[in-house]
Design goal:
Largest sheet of chain A: 6 strands, mixed
CATH superfamily of the largest domain in chain A: MoaB/Mog-like domain
CATH architecture of the largest domain in chain A: 3-Layer(aba) Sandwich
Strand content of chain A: 15-25%
Structural class of chain A: alpha/beta
Oligomer: homodimer
Strand order of the largest sheet of chain A: 2-1-3-8-7-6
Largest interface: A-B, 96 and 94 residues
Distance between the termini of chain A: 35 Å
CATH topology of the largest domain in chain A: Molybdenum Cofactor Biosythetic Enzyme, Chain A
Chain lengths: 423, 423
Amino acid sequence: MGDEHVKKASILSIGNELLNGRTIDTNAAYIAGRLRTISLPVVSVHSVSDEEAAIERALALATGEADVVVATGGLGPTDDDVTRQAFAGFLGVKLVLRPELLEKVKQFFDRRGIEMPARNSIQACIPRGAAAIENEMGTAPGIRAQKDGKRLFALPGVPTEMRHMLDTQVLPELRPLVSGQAIAVRRLKCFGAGESRIAEMIGDAMRRGRNPLVNCTVHTGIISLEVVATAADRAEAENMAEREERALRTLLGKLVYGAGDQTLAEVVGEGLVRTGRTLAVAESCTGGLLAELITDIPGSSRYFTYGWVTYSNEAKCRELEVSREMIDTHGAVSEQVAQAMAQGARRKAGTDYAIAITGIAGPGGGNEQKPVGLVYIAVDNRDGTDTSRYVFSFDRSSVRLRAAQTALNTLRLKLDLTGPVQI
Amino acid sequence: MGDEHVKKASILSIGNELLNGRTIDTNAAYIAGRLRTISLPVVSVHSVSDEEAAIERALALATGEADVVVATGGLGPTDDDVTRQAFAGFLGVKLVLRPELLEKVKQFFDRRGIEMPARNSIQACIPRGAAAIENEMGTAPGIRAQKDGKRLFALPGVPTEMRHMLDTQVLPELRPLVSGQAIAVRRLKCFGAGESRIAEMIGDAMRRGRNPLVNCTVHTGIISLEVVATAADRAEAENMAEREERALRTLLGKLVYGAGDQTLAEVVGEGLVRTGRTLAVAESCTGGLLAELITDIPGSSRYFTYGWVTYSNEAKCRELEVSREMIDTHGAVSEQVAQAMAQGARRKAGTDYAIAITGIAGPGGGNEQKPVGLVYIAVDNRDGTDTSRYVFSFDRSSVRLRAAQTALNTLRLKLDLTGPVQI
């Protein structure tokens, strides 16, 4: 199946509030996710202001890129809602008042015991020749139209209304369109190497135009590889994705820690539950972040019992029995202190494992010997303590997050969860 | 000031991951917000896949709509990063390898003691005639170009890199472009009441078309009121915004905890520093989140010394000297235990204040008497302990975050920071 036969969609997000830097457009991601469930990939999202000309330009671009355009927003009753007018303009027709739609808008207010404000009658207007999409949850019906074989939809911007209309009316209409194309998706989560290194390891899997295609994204040190297989039917697409996933797992080995949306804390937690082991943590520079990531997982109380945030030297000595002399000799940020913190935490908590982190998160506190970003991570169990030294980069938040993730990854590797397939 | 003379910007977000429904584009909102601080409004955001033709089409549309185009993403070293190529294509020039850029990319790897992977040399290529934007935090330099009087910028998609380059290099270059139009923005941060209540309190300030306009957004319980004043010159706009800010502060009183991007932890930290007081925390259901929010603030070691994550009952007894009988009688989630945790933490840490949180974050663990979301927060100082009961809503993450924020807000009010202006 050549790429040129794959039907595609484009999303139009309409509204000034999307452009002021304060509102994050979550509708577009929702629509893209839902369209993908019916194997209709989204090739672009255009966010424009409530201006007829801008919306018309975006419609022209979107219909050039895609077979289906789903617009949201600008169907309200106020003067700044002009999506209807822009659709009419783009289709080259006039807006017409549809009495049956007006009746429904009126009924919506009647049910609430309110008289319909006059301005709401605009919501009963749709472009001549277009059809309405019923809105059971609000006053604004949507619009369904065609131009040059392209399907156009306009939905309200209110998420609950939009979602309901998309799921119950738009997706069912689109499904027959994509019946000869299926997309299967797999996601592998990796930690412990950079993007370039992983790209090298997986060879040409990321080459453009390949099928399955592998996309690589990095977020806070976690590398996600997304496998997208396209085929004429679902079984074939799933098969292709499955084979590709297995190939990637073989190439990447233990760098792959999980799949889908799994976090490192989740995988470590599952490993601890499965092996019936328990964990305590002692943190300095991460200041509670490691404990927070661990306890973010529901049910973490089965394996996590104690955490210390020993932010001062005194706290390290008094709570974790680190010796004052050791801190004076080696400094609080040292291999020795990390090791002593982990041992002290495990001894006091009586757990199978303890992780300790000490470092310099910055922006202040660094020097030539011990730069900002220097972090020691120790993992202690009955067999002894492994301590490693890292220098993490950039800002305070990045250093802290990378340190906490690396600590989790160290424990993951120590737990020897052979192959994430079993997780 | 006629609208036709107002300079405008368009944002291009580049990356397949933005179109798959899994990733929410936060870069676009950040850029829009920053451009607004220099009075450059954003008229559109176009998100396209990592495809040269798609990027070129979007560049054509964006330069038609705006005077400035800021693109992010697609500057990585892998095959699916094609923003450089698309910029070259749009500009009608070839990509050229710039030795001085290659040197910088190599140095980036050298500093980490790694040899530069061969594929990273693509990051030293930029379109002929364009300039590079230096990237101090990563390997990919950005691109700065002009076409038909329009300014084009390409920045990496990694938020830390993009933000730094935007702030230090792109905004300074754009500032002269927008003299003659002025937008002044103020942001007030509020905690302790819902959006509707705050809207009621501030009367018609949020009416559309008003100048200054007040926008209200809610994010994780924090209500941000944004005042936007528009005028022909900066002094006038700043004056209008200033007056509006003062009026809002009077109406909202102690609900306003800060301004700009201030967090509750920052405001509390400043209050502790100013009064020379210290803080310890003892957490159960928040599992380290409160300590993490506190220590996220640089310099927090001046006032924060000890934190305990007493996730098990045993940990509460052994670390904080909560009595076993109290837990047996009242349960670990009770007013009594919260109070005892706070007192134990302050006694052991020797601080001026201690905060304790115990609750049921869910999804499991609730019952009729003690539902999911039930949280007790205690703040102890030499004058005694204040303990309050809350039932927070929705999911585990929301309960935990709301509990930690409410704990910080309780301490803020107790510190009696009279009026956030002094903070």
